[in-house]
Amino acid sequence: MGFLSIEVSGTPEEMGSAYGSQAKEQIMKAAAFYKKFITEKSGRSWDDISKLIDSDIIPSLSSNYSEYFEEMKAISASSGVPLQEVVAINVRSELSFGLFKIENKDNTSDGCTSMTCVSDKYAMSGQNWDWIDDAYEFTIILKLNPINKPSCVMVAEAGMIGKIGMNEYGVGCLINALRVSGYNYQALPVNIAARKILESATAKEAVKYVVSKGLACSVNYMVCDKDYSCAIEATAYDTVVIERNSMGHVYHTNHTIKDHDSRGYEPFFVPDSAPRLSQIEQAAQKAPDSSFQSLDKFFEFFSDTSNSPLSVCKFSIPESPAHTLCTVTMDHNAKIVRFRFGMPCDPSKGDFEFKY
């Protein structure tokens, strides 16, 4: 399967219009998928979700993040996908995981393993993005060239305006899904936060901005450049920065590592999250420096199938049906980002590399 790669430039309206016209088919598929997914996870009808988008989400986007909302409107107009559905794609974490039903025992969720490693010898980061097969139909490579902002390249679900990638300054953004209840409509939406990170000149600048705004729902970001990295572990109620360990590393999967405000409820819903965290941490701590000095060697951490199916290279199991769809690795000194689609041990679905 070939993955669509598009490049758009200009004002928010110009970029959105080009995005929507070039990825129309994929955006339609993403919208259909997330309408069903969000209603199942939240326990609300699409009519109720649409009313919520109109009454709370669109006014917040329009007031607080107008340029991104203009981009979404242009995506909607050029793709023919209703605006509510384009917005839903961009707040899918908030609507599905922030509003999840407490009694919902379904473990279907993104299940990602991430690591950043920064020292005086190297600056690397990477993750496996684990999701379900349906997403292959609407996953794209998106390169953005906004006016008076850094260009960036990312892997995204079609219609999204921010996700996992790197910008021209070598600032990278990785994302781990968390499922802690709560949705703050006035705080920074998950995918807009990713876009803001990718528009920052440095990792520290990105972290300062995101922490100052707070997040609309639970999520973890790994932010990295050539000089600094950390994790931003957030719920709708608070945000905690996790700094590098003594080796200069940070690791994360799909459960909260730090204590958070008790108003958020977190079911331990991804049974392989703790094993994956332990596996990548142990592997990195035992590895020689050479494992962090080339993307080829660094990639091996994410193709690790030991302890399968509860491995970093994630396999689908009934209790946790997501599996690795894309591996993203970045060298922040060289400003190179690589995407491998499919399981990292299988190159058949395609590779994409970009260097700034």
Task: Describe the structure in your own words.
The chain has helices at 12-22, 24-42, 46-64, 66-79, 83-90, 92-98, 190-197, 203-213, 273-286, 295-299, and strands spanning 5-10, 113-118, 123-131, 139-146, 152-157, 164-167, 172-177, 219-224, 229-234, 239-242, 249-252, 323-331, 336-341, 351-355. Helices cover 33% and strands 24% of the residues. The chain folds into two domains: 5-98, Arc Repressor Mutant, subunit A; 113-355, Penicillin V Acylase, Chain A. The chain is of the alpha+beta class. The mean pLDDT is 92. The longest helix is centred in the first third of the chain and has 19 residues, at 24-42. An eight-stranded mixed β-sheet has the order 1-4-5-6-7-8-9-10. A hairpin with a 4-residue loop joins strand 6 and strand 7 (172-177). Helix 2 crosses helix 5.
Q: At the third CATH level, what is the topology name of the largest domain?
A: Penicillin V Acylase, Chain A
Mean pLDDT comes to 92
In total, how many beta strands?
14
Structurally, the number of domains stands at 2
The proportion of strand residues reads: 15-25%
**Radius of gyration computed on alpha carbons:** 18 Å
**CATH H level, superfamily name of the largest domain:** Penicillin V Acylase, Chain A
Largest sheet: 8 strands, mixed
Q: State the order of secondary-structure elements, H for helix, E for strand.
A: EHHHHHHEEEEEEHHEEEEHHEEE
- Helix/strand/pairing class, anyone? alpha+beta
Tell me, what's the shape? Answer: globular
In spatial order, strands of the major sheet run: 1-4-5-6-7-8-9-10
CATH architecture of the largest domain: 4-Layer Sandwich
Q: Which blocks of ≥5 consecutive residues have pLDDT under 50? A: none
- What is the overall number of helices? 10
Helical proportion, percent range: 25-40%
Distance from N terminus to C terminus (CA atoms, Å) equals 26 Å
Top CATH class of the largest domain: Alpha Beta
